[in-house]
């Protein structure tokens, strides 16, 4: 594999990541053991940013795959394609990562069907191999390769959960929205709004998070707070900014929208 190909997956600039506990040290230890890692937590709480930061810190290329239910094993592993000369094999992202020693991040892995998920099993065995069945080849993962998956435990029905035989191949780390002061720091730093505004946004989020399971499936994520801050920083009226980024994305229920809009009004009214 050419150096240019590897370079394109390297993260050039240090991603901004605010550590919330000992996750950086834990992940480094897991990487040093080449242990597969599972990041669990609600959407928009910092999982992807954390992986980007760790890939940068460890100096490893990062290959991210957003999983979905239409994804097949071939989408991960590779397939034969037709070109002028005939058929050529093209590696999928998992195969590329295994060959170049990248960190392969399978985002929202439960979205993939179970027959797709099982292709990662041999990579998590001590032999760390990947069979390319259609090509009749078995590759050995590069010594720097590591597999990381994320998933949001809240969404899954029992039907769609990961199998124990998959789960128990990973060390797992819990992620959640950062505590208030840290989250306000993140929002201020990411968007340029001042501390006071960031703190208000976080307080609104806390109100909404208390409604999880009481009419809301998910609370307001850190990602949405960053969206709100971005609009406010561009001069959008905070009420309109919050309505667009904190309330509308979350729910279509008119009563719930009123409740959330009212909460926004108590901070920005
Ligand atoms: N600990 C953190 N440090 C820095 N930014 C964070 C942190 N947690 C969340 N963010 C912000 O929230 C956004 C969404 O986080 P992301 O990693 O994409 O969420 P997830 O992958 O968990 O869905 C990021 O783009 C970043 O702006
Ligand atoms: Mg993500």
From TrEMBL:
In the record, what terms sit under GO molecular function?
ATP binding; ATP hydrolysis activity
Q: Where is the ATPase dynein-related AAA domain?
A: 36-170
Matching entries from Gene3D superfamilies are given as: P-loop containing nucleotide triphosphate hydrolases
Q: Keywords, A to Z?
A: ATP-binding, Nucleotide-binding
Q: Name one Pfam family in it.
A: CbbQ_C
In this chain the CbbQ/NirQ/NorQ C-terminal domain maps to 183-264
Q: Which family does it belong to?
A: Belongs to the CbbQ/NirQ/NorQ/GpvN family.
The protein's name is: ATPase
- State the species of origin: Thiohalobacter thiocyanaticus
């Amino acid at each position: 594999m050419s150096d240019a190909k590897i370079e394109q997956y390297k993260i050039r600039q240090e991603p901004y990541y605010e550590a919330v506990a000992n996750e950086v040290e834990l992940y480094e230890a897991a990487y040093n053991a080449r242990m597969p890692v599972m990041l669990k937590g609600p959407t928009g709480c910092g999982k992807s940013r954390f992986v980007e930061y760790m890939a940068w810190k460890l100096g490893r290329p990062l290959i991210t795959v957003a999983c979905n239910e239409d994804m097949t094993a071939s989408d991960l592993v590779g397939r034969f394609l037709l070109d002028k000369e005939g058929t050529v094999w093209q590696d999928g992202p998992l195969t590329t990562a295994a060959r170049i020693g990248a960190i392969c991040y399978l985002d929202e892995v439960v979205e993939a069907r179970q027959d797709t998920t099982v292709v990662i099993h041999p990579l998590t065995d001590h032999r760390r191999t990947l069979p390319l069945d259609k090509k009749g080849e078995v590759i050995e993962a590069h010594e720097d390769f590591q597999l990381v998956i994320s998933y949001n435990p809240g969404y899954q029905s029992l039907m769609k959960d990961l199998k124990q035989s998959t789960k128990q191949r990973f060390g797992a780390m819990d992620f959640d929205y950062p505590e208030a002061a840290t989250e306000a720091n993140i929002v201020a730093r990411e968007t340029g709004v001042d501390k006071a505004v960031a703190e208000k946004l976080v307080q609104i989020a806390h109100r909404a998070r208390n409604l999880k399971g009481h009419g809301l499936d998910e609370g307001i994520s850190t990602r949405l707070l960053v969206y709100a801050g971005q609009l406010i920083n561009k001069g959008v009226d905070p009420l309109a900014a919050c309505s667009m980024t904190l309330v509308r994305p979350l729910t279509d229920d008119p009563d719930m929208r009123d409740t959330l809009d009212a909460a926004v009004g108590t901070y920005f009214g």
